[in-house]
Design a protein that fits this description.
alpha/beta, seven-stranded mixed sheet, 2 domains, 378 residues, globular, Glycerol-3-phosphate (1)-acyltransferase, 16 helices
Length: 378
């Protein structure tokens, strides 16, 4: 449908031309040489040029690239909850968001490994301004979230995206990934933005909102990294916000963050998919007929699932104890793990800047604080 041309990924009929447009690009060569170090350029190019569908591109190339990233920059990926999902069934995955590329890539690797429907994934158009990145994202089944629009155009754009998400799930049997808020969480406090849910609700065409959300099959997702490879890069924005200053990104900042997230060390990674929010939506519909209150309750239900299932690592407990000058969680980490974290702190943060030090520690400690609210921080 031409209606969605401004935001949709490639159709399969467009995939081969999309590949031809970037097969000789230096960045594609870098990606392929990283992924297939034993192959000659001519070999992976020939394989790419034989590709005519997004699924083949994802399974034969992107899947392998993500595996290589995990092998080189992590100590392994663990998963939980995927056994609850049904094969050949589309879901709307609403996820906390820590890394620009890896969050959704790791989810799709996990879905593929479990024989489940992979996602079409939302990505901000500010991240794909370069033609190469735009074409690569369209080959990887990303659809565009249009940023920085004036209010009237933003409303139209939100409605278009809502309709597109509904079409993917309800008509095309395609799962969708979307972050719980605009942009990545930078302070460790994962919270669902009600505006995201209001956008999704625009596609309901006046039918009962909770019934429409049930049709979308909302599944909350939590992803956690033992080390956030972009932790220090998040500091300038956190500092500006702490001083109530407007933060202006540096040129190429998004691209540097994107690259750092991929190649930076993460240690262990865990991704958990929660249960479908059916029972919760029924209860919300019974308790409230006010749409705003319903949306607020849905956001809370998503937060409850994400925060309770978030996997805490030694780094989280260490940061909490340092920040609060306590040894409350000393049984959750070793002396060596604490030394490594303190060394990272020394390397990344200017010790004389108390506010920056506190922000860095909060980034890791806040997931513990959030878990404590549910009484399951261990």
């Amino acid at each position: 449908m031409q209606k969605f041309d401004a935001i949709r990924p490639f159709y399969d009929t467009e995939v081969n031309n999309g590949i031809k447009s970037l097969v000789n690009h230096p960045m594609m060569r870098a990606i392929m040489n990283f992924t297939f170090p034993d192959l000659e350029d001519v070999d992976w190019k020939n394989q790419l040029l034989k590709t005519h569908s997004i699924r083949d591109f994802q399974c034969n190339f992107i899947y392998q690239s993500v595996q290589k990233v995990l092998e080189n920059s992590s100590e392994g990926l663990t998963t939980s909850g995927f056994e609850k999902l049904e094969k050949n069934t589309p879901y709307l995955f609403i996820s906390n968001h820590r890394d620009i590329i890896l969050d959704t890539s790791i989810l799709n690797v996990s879905l593929f490994d479990h024989g489940l429907v992979m996602t079409a994934s939302a990505i901000g158009d500010n991240l794909v301004k370069k033609d190469f990145l735009l074409n690569l994202s369209k080959l990887n089944r990303n659809f565009l979230v249009q940023r920085g629009l004036p209010p009237r155009e933003l409303l139209q754009s939100s409605k278009l995206m809502s309709e597109y998400i509904g079409k993917l799930i309800l008509t095309e049997n395609r799962s969708v990934w979307i972050a719980q808020r605009e942009g990545r969480t930078k302070d460790g406090n994962d919270a669902t933005h009600q505006g995201v849910l209001k956008m999704l609700g625009m596609g309901s065409n006046e039918e009962n909102l909770m019934e429409y959300f049930k049709k979308l099959q909302i599944v909350p997702v939590s992803i956690s990294y033992e080390y956030d490879p972009t932790d220090a890069l998040k500091m300038p924005q956190l500092m500006a916000e702490a001083k109530a200053e407007k933060y202006v990104k540096e040129k190429n900042e998004d691209f540097i963050t994107l690259l750092s997230g991929i190649i930076g060390q993460k240690k262990r990674i865990h991704i958990h998919v929660g249960s479908i929010l059916n029972k919760e939506l029924d209860e919300i519909a019974m308790e409230n007929d006010n749409t705003n209150k319903q949306v607020q309750a849905v956001a809370q239900a998503i937060d409850d699932s994400i925060l309770q299932s978030y996997k805490l690592w030694p780094t989280n407990y260490i940061a909490y104890d340092i920040l609060n000058k306590t040894d409350r969680f000393k049984n959750q980490y070793t002396d060596n793990e604490k030394s490594l974290f303190e060394r990272r702190l020394e390397m990344k943060i200017d010790a004389s800047n108390g506010m920056m030090m506190e922000s860095f520690l909060n980034m890791y400690a806040n997931p513990v604080v959030n878990k404590l609210k549910y009484g399951n921080a261990i």
